[in-house]
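Shipment paperwork, digital attachment
Item: protein structure file
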Amino acid sequence: MSLIAPKTPPGVMELLPRQQVAFQGMLDTIRRGYERFGFLPVETPVFETTDVLLTKSGGETEKQVYFVQSTGALQQNRRPELALRFDLTVPLARYVAEHERDLVFPFRRYQMQRVYRGERAQKSRYREFYQCDIDVIGKDTLPVAFDAEMPAVIAHVFNELKVGGFAINLNNRKLLLGLLATVGVTLPERQALVLRELDKLDKVGRDAVAATLSSEEARLLDLLGEAGSTDEVLGRLRQLGSDQPQVREGLQELTQVVEGLRAFGVSEQNFRLNLTIARGLDYYTGTVYETFLDACPGLGSVCSGGRYDNLASHYTKSKLPGVGISIGATRLFSQLVDAGLIDGAGRSTSQILVTQLDPALTADYFAIATTLRAAGLNTEVHLEPAKIGKQMKYADRAGIPLVLVMGDQEKARGAVTLKHLASGNQREVSLATVADAARSMLEAG
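Attachment content:
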């Protein structure tokens, strides 16, 4: 029988164990940051019913959806009943509408799960990837102050991740729609198309976007693309003196978000107004966000989101406005590793390897490991007899920082030897103090 070559499916991130430890460490940092601001965990199924998932997805997104087809439905040529989620926001809308009576509003939730999109497989574009979302859902109303809190949370998380410089770009779709109306673009279908084209500015450039727009629509590119500080951009918008209601409302909300960010203590270096940000998904209605890393200028946004006032309207008559933001964790991790901003080959989950110098002392090694674990130290015992050099090499390759050695002579003295592999530091300590000594050497590095 011929062997089938093992091959990872295209468009997924499959990591080696130590890389997975590093990735999990990043997820843990994000989770701690979300919980620091009082968000609660939620999980939803990997698939949703097709009618729920596609209600507000928009034509472009629907092309990327993976449908789940049962054998029975396939044989009967029926439309697939289920589809894999392409983001976590539409499932959230279904979740809140379904469990509305059991939730406390404003409902603050975080969700860290995989999503699936039919992307063309290429570097940093994944078909399966983790999203780490936070959202706040209100009942009937939701103050714009929550729109300011979202990027404040992200600024906290990115500072904890130590990713270097970053900029959270802010805009408001009401403002964009109002400006479109002032140049005669009032049909919703055309407005949605123009916004999707504007959202491609950073990817394809001004000329390519202008070629898809009418001459009147293209006039907006000069205004939207003009650089300046946050206060300068707000000042230019105020000088327009527009009587268009959406322009006034969008400008007022954008101003409130900026004031809120400053009150939260977010550095001016970590946010800016970018009037070309539109967000391609159709369900955003107000504030929108895109986040870029200074160290990876060509990467594109690694964190995005915005305000959605009507997303749950297909599932309930209640008005449940929301605002949210999402970190693309898989994409972020791969780029941070490539840029050398995080160690992609993290340490093992084991902190200490208890070596086996003498098989007759196996029971003693087990007892020492139990003591170390009781003290909160992750401890592995080398259960296979081998030369001490081979055991040391195993610990080094596995990313275990500390090894413990005990032979007949050490046992007679009631002692063990601890060695930190990276630094080469080594010392003999008593069995009574082994846990404290090990923790001290791990902290010293």
